[in-house]
């Protein structure tokens, strides 16, 4: 090793040792008679000292010529600091330098390598290797490492076997778009990159592997949105001979293990909520349960009073923003503007202020009497000081709008603390969802999810009402994982494909191998997959997954550091038997 | 859980317990009055018993109707067996069945699910999920799981951080062919799948990550040979602030840890051999050191005696097959045929039999006297009973031919026992190798490998003689890993690209980001990558890597189970902006 110690290692007990350190020059302070240099590596920072009176002149001059981010090797004596720095684990000592060697100089970095950098997003992505030197980014990736370690430790301990499934698989039309890979040996044919190892993990269950897991890269060629990545990582799991209850218990165990080991947090038992209930009370299948603020439906109380908006509404529903009764006109206008934004889409906002003096004021008090409004506040269990916010309209979209408002109020009231964690199971998802675009039902989870047996009869009459044995884990209002009990017999799987609009020939071409496998003794099985990037970001208390991925793509799916995607040679194209035909509407 | 115990769990101490088991019907033996069924799961086999006199008639009849590979759930009482089976951990008990439920029937499998199956390769690949049920295949994948676990445990313990590098990267012309992925968002542009995370792990070192590892999928679009896979897995590692010695010690530590933990084998310190020495004494850069049989060069002793073959030969070299002096004419003819096969390519074989009676007999004794032949056997340290086998010709190819003969003799003499393990470091590889095809030098390892400083001066005058700071680990004659100390400054990297025939513009387009990174304080660093599939197969004592990969491709790069690669839709092609142009010479 080019060093005897790391930059995070030396303590008072090491005083008088001669040591060799390597690292990067974080900063220098030259006081004339004394020069201090902070030397940084992954493990910490150690202060180096050069003294005009005592340090060899060549060494001092070498020390003075060190620039930011130079990589150096120094030799020196560990001494006790005169003025200690209790913020640094090495803050009680410094190293009196007797030799300096520049291992590699550095140009001036395009942004400062500090916790708060002056570099913009674009620049930091281009020089990602410099951005990765900053503590918050490095710590995010160290957290990810720890998450992976403890995930494996937990699952290994539960007899799960890690099995690698292939990356070069087959394109299937269901779900999101596949990335494809042209075959050179078989011109005109393509592999596809997996959106998930779904069929392979089910085949492993047919093989009797019993308990499988993998921390695995998956790929989706979607139109990119902020914080979506074309490649992402899943904790992918599957179990045989289980009920849904076993899956919930096992993976609740995993999440609680991770909170304990990685964050030191004792997560309580994870509560469960039905999908219908989540939609009814939170207008979302991933409610943020760090705070209550449940929806209250007052439709019945609003009818027959000539207020046209409520009169014509399928649903009048609201939340109680506790302690907000004294919101100013301006504050309420802001909320109204918020719900009227096209992204939210409400027509307006009705409020009822239950003032601290006990009086009630509302934007609709010309339609409703004080008693009537008091009836509303009672339904909300409101107290003096509370503010009721109401939306009205078509039931489903109104709930979605109110969900946005609820989250905004949660933010405003400080309920969405990133260091507080609330996990939730959402159960009994619908099996199918209607797509306006394709005018047919699609699998809400995926085509391998089993319907609840008692609902199968509804498949022909009311497909949207069929519930699935499907579940999501939600933490702090974000879906971090989801899964289902699978279909494990050919007949049911064939029936599902029929209902999803696959012809028998299509189903056979795409999934024939799986249906055939179901005929050779497929055990009952089910599983779950967690979005690992997202899970890490929640553990790290971050909004974006970007810093939990070492080399992320930007929102256009580009890696601007290595400059990809990029053109390839004519020779490569020829070997692959393909021709580029840039579409005219893209020029 | 649908079971109270697994099929590998019950012991004598469980007798009189009522249990529920699930699993697959391995086989049934119906003796009329008694029916035995072996129930199998991943954990073992448990014998079920149905008795005509005691079992409920319906249950007995259900038991009789069970076919091979049916998945069933049974309830029953654990009883002590009358005739115990000491080959089975559960062999002291059996379960008296009181309830049977068929969870899923099975068609008759196309081959038997036994340790030795009657299924051919093709059929087993098509029904891989059934092949995976067989013990040897499942055990191979369980071994792989254990290898991965212990690899991570060791590296975690040494402060390595696991970092995931991207799969959608950039195509580079150096090395093997890339698989590419057309971009839909950026028509006409492509991602490439990584042949290794090489540049990314080096960037992580520039970032100060200090110690990185990843068990990671890599991809190479090569013309497939037996036992090559288009996707394969590497244990990929990199370290900063190290010398070659540190790398060798660290990863020798890993391999010894794996042998200890996975095989219970105490591997001795791994010896080291220079590349030149390996070529000289074994004719291979990956000598099988389970046995000695070193090459002996007797060129000098053969000259001036009018034996034209030796006279004109650059090299006369041989091995001593100890104890083989009494080989028959037929046996020696076989060896001669072997070396003359086109795959080996020798012109002929000369032998010297040092017979057990002390006499010497040779195929060239009309050219050489008894004393002269005795001089040869002395040089081989041969004893009565030994057989000297000699090849002659151009030095490099003759050594390669003799390597093949040495391995054959090693097999014949039982020296290549799969349960014996001999590891070796091969050091000081050449930096460059000449390609007849492209008529230029290529990087033997890769373009990022550093030359030995003392050899740099030879780059212009004798490039083939420049040695690299590069090393391979060889186990039992197979290269299982290789790596190098990297270049970490822009000037040297630029010089290397020049010598590899990159123009400055090409180097910049392909690797500009890396050369730029080297200007921002890149630390000295180096690393290694192990071929994980191969390493597992050696630990498993297998010749093929096939069974250590859950879902391998066949030799044509196809997965015949899911049928990929395959055609994709016109719509997909259109969105990707490409057109398939099947080459006419492929039709």
CATH homologous superfamily label of the largest domain in chain A:
Bira Bifunctional Protein, Domain 2
Task: Please give the CATH class of the largest domain in chain A.
Answer: Alpha Beta
If you compute it from the alpha carbons, what radius of gyration of chain A comes out, rounded to the nearest whole angstrom?
30 Å
> Biggest interface pair, residues each?
A-B, 124 and 124 residues
Kindly state the percentage of residues in helix of chain A: 25-40%
Number of domains of chain A: 3
- Average predicted local confidence, pLDDT of chain A: 95
Estimate the global geometry of chain A from the Cα principal axes.
Answer: globular
- Major beta-sheet overview of chain A: 8 strands, mixed
Structural classification of chain A: alpha+beta
Quaternary organisation: homodimer
Count helical runs of chain A: 17
Lateral arrangement of strands in the main beta sheet of chain A: 6-9-10-22-21-20-17-11
Estimate what percentage of residues of chain A fall within beta strands: 15-25%
Q: Which fold does the CATH topology of the largest domain in chain A refer to? A: BirA Bifunctional Protein, domain 2
What is the number of E strands of chain A? 23
The CATH architecture assignment of the largest domain in chain A turns out to be 2-Layer Sandwich
Low-confidence stretches of chain A: none
N/C terminus separation of chain A: 55 Å
């Amino acid at each position: 090793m080019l060093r005897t110690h790391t930059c995070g290692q030396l303590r008072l007990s090491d005083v008088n040792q001669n040591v060799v350190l390597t690292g990067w020059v974080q900063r220098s302070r030259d006081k004339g008679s004394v020069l201090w240099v902070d030397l940084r590596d992954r493990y910490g920072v150690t202060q180096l000292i050069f003294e005009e009176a005592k340090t060899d002149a060549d060494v001092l001059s070498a020390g003075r010529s060190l620039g930011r981010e130079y990589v150096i090797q120094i030799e020196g004596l560990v001494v006790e600091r005169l003025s200690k720095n209790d913020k640094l684990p090495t803050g009680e000592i410094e190293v009196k330098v007797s030799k300096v060697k520049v291992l590699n100089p550095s140009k001036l970095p395009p942004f400062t390598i500090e916790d708060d950098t002056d570099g913009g997003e674009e620049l930091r992505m281009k020089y990602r290797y410099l951005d990765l030197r900053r503590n918050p980014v490095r710590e995010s990736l160290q957290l990810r490492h720890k998450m992976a370690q403890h995930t494996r430790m937990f699952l290994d301990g539960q007899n799960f076997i890690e099995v690698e499934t292939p990356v070069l698989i087959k394109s299937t039309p269901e779900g999101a778009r596949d990335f494809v890979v042209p075959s050179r040996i078989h011109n005109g044919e393509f592999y596809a990159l997996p959106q998930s190892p779904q069929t392979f993990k089910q085949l492993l269950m047919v093989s009797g592997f019993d308990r499988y897991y993998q921390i695995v890269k998956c790929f989706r060629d979607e139109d990119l949105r902020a914080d979506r990545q074309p490649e992402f990582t899943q904790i992918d799991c599957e179990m045989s001979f289980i009920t849904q209850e076993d899956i919930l218990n096992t993976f609740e165990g995993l999440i609680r293990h991770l909170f304990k080991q990685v964050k030191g947090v004792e997560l309580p038992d994870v509560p469960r909520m039905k999908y219908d209930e989540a939609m009814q009370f939170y207008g979302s299948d991933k409610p943020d349960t760090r705070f209550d603020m449940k929806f209250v439906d007052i439709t019945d109380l609003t009818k027959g009073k000539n207020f046209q908006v409520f009169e014509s509404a399928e649903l009048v529903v609201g939340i109680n923003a506790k302690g907000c009764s004294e919101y100013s006109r301006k504050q309420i206008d802001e909320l109204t503007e918020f719900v009227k934004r096209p992204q939210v889409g409400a027509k307006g906002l009705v409020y009822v202020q239950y003032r601290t003096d006990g009086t009630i004021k509302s934007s609709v008090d010309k339609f409703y009497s004080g008693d009537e409004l008091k009836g509303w506040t009672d339904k909300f269990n409101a107290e003096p000081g509370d503010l009721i916010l109401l939306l009205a309209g078509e039931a489903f979209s109104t709930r979605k709008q109110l969900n946005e408002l609820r989250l905004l109020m949660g933010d405003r009231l400080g309920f969405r603390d990133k260091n507080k964690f609330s996990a939730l199971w959402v159960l009994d998802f619908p099996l199918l969802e209607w797509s306006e675009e394709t005018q047919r039902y699609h699998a809400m989870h995926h085509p391998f999810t089993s319907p609840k047996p008692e609902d199968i009869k509804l498949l022909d009459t009311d497909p949207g009402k069929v519930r699935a044995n499907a579940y999501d884990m939600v933490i702090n209002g974000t879906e971090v994982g989801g899964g289902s009990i699978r279909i494990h017999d050919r007949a049911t799987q064939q029936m599902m494909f029929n209902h999803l609009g696959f012809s028998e020939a299509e189903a056979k071409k795409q999934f024939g191998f799986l249906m055939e496998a179901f005929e050779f003794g497929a055990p009952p099985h089910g599983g779950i997959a967690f979005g690992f990037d997202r899970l890490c970001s929640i553990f790290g208390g971050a909004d974006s997954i970007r810093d939990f991925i070492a080399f992320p793509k930007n929102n256009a799916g580009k890696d601007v550091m290595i400059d990809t995607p990029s053109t390839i040679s004519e020779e490569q194209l020829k070997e692959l038997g393909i021709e580029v035909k840039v579409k005219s509407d893209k020029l």
